[in-house]
Automatic annotation (TrEMBL):
The chain crosses the membrane at residues 61-86, 98-116, 122-140, 180-205, 225-247. Residues 275-500 form the ABC transporter domain. Residues 59-248 form the ABC transmembrane type-1 domain. It is a multi-pass membrane protein. Keywords: ATP-binding, Cell membrane, Membrane, Nucleotide-binding, Transmembrane, Transmembrane helix, Transport. This is Dipeptide/oligopeptide/nickel ABC transporter ATP-binding protein. The keyword Zinc-finger does not apply. Belongs to the binding-protein-dependent transport system permease family. GO terms for cellular component: plasma membrane. GO terms for biological process: peptide transport; transmembrane transport.
Length: 566
């Protein structure tokens, strides 16, 4: 709907000369102030000019000015913001102060001052509006680039000899452009309204051009006698402003990516098909690269009513493996593989205040999820389902404990009655008792809602409470996979055994020492020709470093990638 209004606006603007029934500037005093009829669908004005034609040409003017303002402010803003974010230090401090000042100045005042000095006219209008509009783009681009500046990925590029121009142009501007384009979709409305307001004040596009703001002011004296003069441009402005705001909100919520991003950002080359029966997700041969691979040839599946635990050390690729099938990874990622999935998926992240908007109550967060889901559940019902009192709805995120916030995240995630719930380290930041309560809650919801669930954790003992099957990851690959009890009781891969020995196990003799694994984690899947775990493995033989062992079936549903059998 929101896109439709904007598409109509753009088409009207582009095609005005072809579809307008009359010349918008030609007067016919004998046909003045005619009401809408078959000849003049929107009537005529006091000079006998066809209102529909004027409205269509008005769209053309608004579109041209808006496109020009967006082009100037986006280019300038992204450039300035990227430079500040990339260079940091005093350059960043100076530019940031200028951006802060520009953001805090009332835009209309800036535009009025510029037009006051330079006089009205299309060119001056574009300059005035661009001076008003550039600063948010600079701020967004600066924040995005500053966050990426010190990433290991960029360090690696610099080490490989990439100069600042290449790093900025190829690796920083495209990701900064994404959120800026989302913001631009909201800005369309603001600019159309700004141009109309300035024209309304007699400072925008001068007559006889049929600009919407100009049409409004011309129609105002006739509001009582000839409503068709002021209403159509008024409705057109309102519709474009609303549609642009709604589209911006939707894009910011991640429902859709602006189509231009599909050219700017690398394509995802995965194949997604709908799941059958109780299969919630099946992933085959998933690889993710930036472009060097961080996840290689990963396959797993999970059915409704079943919990799959993905475990492994930090950096082993767990999160990437479970979120990449849904596009929830860095947009630069190149994702390949075959994915069979259900329609509805909910995600719960590690407890982090950043997941919530600090200025909105818990009730408004859950309420938004309820509205988006359109499945008839109510906020209080969801809060009760996750074991929270309804009064929590009036509280703000910082007023809740970590465990309570995780329950709220779960309530939001299940609002859409997902077929699959992904929980990424849902209890890592919490103490042991709260951890256990949350895992019990997840287990209960899995049964009550018959969901499939994937729980990501670095701690095998934690997920043992809830999982049916386990996939153990090391250096971007699954090294062992199978039913929970088999993997825990008779681990086949030395890495799984190492993970189990590093934590207390029920039934262990008091005084048993935990064993740590020698060496460091953090290898990537293609670093070594052989087994990535070999350098740390106590039972490795030279053969292990020469050839990479494949996952092989060693029991009922039990696979291991170690021929040595730990
Ligand atoms: N945007 C990115 N650019 C480059 N490399 C990335 C990017 N995102 C993730 N990686 C790399 O991918 C690898 C796997 O990361 P991932 O977050 O999936 O691991 P993980 O096992 O979930 O770790 P953790 O438990 O710390 O979250 C890591 O080595 C990480 O550095």
């Amino acid at each position: 709907m929101r896109s439709t209004v904007l598409v109509v606006f753009v088409l009207a603007g582009l095609l005005a000369p072809l579809i307008a029934p009359y010349d918008p500037a030609v007067s016919d005093l004998a046909a003045g102030l005619l009401p809408p009829s078959a000849d003049h669908w929107l009537g005529t004005d006091q000079l006998g000019r066809d209102q529909l034609s004027r409205l269509l040409y008005g769209a053309q003017i608004s579109l041209t000015v808006t496109a020009a303002v967006l082009a100037v402010s986006l280019t300038f803003g992204v450039l300035v913001g990227t430079l500040a974010g990339y260079f940091g230090g005093w350059i960043d401090r100076v530019i940031s102060r200028v951006i802060d000042m520009a953001v805090s100045l009332p835009g209309m005042l800036v535009a009025l001052a510029v037009i006051g000095v330079r006089g009205p006219g299309v060119f001056n209008l574009v300059i005035a509006m661009s001076l008003w509009a550039w600063s948010p783009y600079a701020r967004i681009a600066r924040a995005k680039v500053a966050a990426m500046r010190d990433s290991p990925h960029l360090d690696a590029l610099r080490l490989m000899g990439a100069g600042p121009a290449r790093v900025i142009g190829r690796h920083l501007v495209p990701p900064a452009l994404g959120p800026c384009l989302v913001y631009a979709s909201t800005d369309v409305g603001a600019i159309v309204l700004g141009v109309a307001t300035l024209s309304f004040l007699g400072l925008g596009i001068p007559p006889p051009y049929a600009e919407w703001g100009q049409m409004l002011i011309e129609g105002r004296p006739f509001l009582a006698s000839a409503w068709w003069l002021a209403y159509p441009p008024g409705i057109a402005i309102t519709a474009v402003v609303f549609a642009s705001n709604l589209l911006g909100e939707r894009l910011a919520g991640g429902d859709e990516r602006p189509s231009i991003l599909r050219w700017v950002l690398p394509a995802r080359r995965n194949r997604t098909v709908a799941a059958k029966d109780d299969e919630a997700l099946r992933v085959e041969g998933l690889s993710v690269g930036y472009p060097q691979r961080v996840v290689a040839d990963v396959s797993y599946e999970v059915r409704r009513g079943e919990v799959l635990a993905v475990v492994g050390e930090s950096g082993s690729g767990k999160t990437t493996s479970v979120l990449a099938p849904f596009g929830l990874v860095d947009p630069r990622a190149i994702v390949t593989g075959s994915i069979t999935q259900g329609k509805r998926v909910g995600v719960v992240f590690q407890d982090n205040l950043a997941v919530f908007n600090p200025l909105r109550t818990i009730g408004s967060h859950v309420g938004e999820a309820v509205r988006n889901a359109r499945r008839g559940r109510r906020t209080e019902e969801l809060l009760t389902l996750v074991g929270l009192p309804a009064s929590v709805a009036r509280r703000y995120p910082h007023e809740l404990s970590g465990g309570q916030r995780q329950r709220v995240q779960i309530a939001i995630a299940i609002a859409g009655e997902p077929e699959l719930l992904i929980a990424d380290e849902p209890t890592s930041a919490l103490d042991v008792t709260v951890q256990a309560q949350l895992l019990d809650l997840l287990a209960r919801l899995r049964d009550e809602l018959n969901m499939a669930m994937i729980v990501v954790s670095h701690d095998l003992a934690v997920v043992a409470r809830l999982a049916d099957t386990v996939a153990v990851m090391y250096a971007g690959r699954i090294v062992e996979q199978g039913p929970l009890s088999t993997v825990i009781n008779s681990p086949a891969h030395p890495y799984t055994r190492g993970l189990l020995d590093a934590v207390p196990r029920p039934g262990a003799v008091p005084g048993t020492r935990f064993r740590t694994m020698p060496g460091r984690s953090g290898a990537a899947p293609d670093d070594l020709a052989g087994c990535a775990f070999a350098p740390r493995c106590v039972i490795a033989v030279p053969e292990c470093s020469a050839n990479r062992p494949m996952l092989e079936l060693i029991g009922a549903g039990h696979q291991s990638a170690c021929p040595r059998k730990a």
